[in-house]
Sequence to fold (156 residues):
Amino acid sequence: MQGPARIDRTPSVTADGEVRVLSVLQMRVPDLLWAELELLIPRPAQRLRYPGRKRYDERACLEGILYVLRWGIPWRALPREPGRPSGNTCWRRLDEWQRLGVWEQLVERLQARLAEADAIAWERAIVDATIVPAKRGATRSAKALQIAAVQPRSPT
Fold:
């Protein structure tokens, strides 16, 4: 059985010169960007009768989602830190936002901000076949040439 992931701590200098120790696992959304994105994320109504467990903050979930997408790790491999949601929680929140159309708006807003800053490297963009449909009625590719079976040589 594997133990918990080791969390390395590295010093970080803030804009005002303050030195803080941040976790390598921490992927913070800047406050200015969060103020813009927070308006797009709907807050579910709080149930009064059976409130259940308190939801994790939307910002913490977004940071977990971005961490998984940035590093390409499985959801279950998202490192656990105190006060941070699990990979399963982040996945559920992404699914919820996707169904509500929020994720598409978030991506469009981020792309618009990057385009304004001229920070998108389109030469490095990748088109994923899972989101770009193939055209129907396209000519079929040529059939592969058949390779004749070769009889193996006798070892004797």
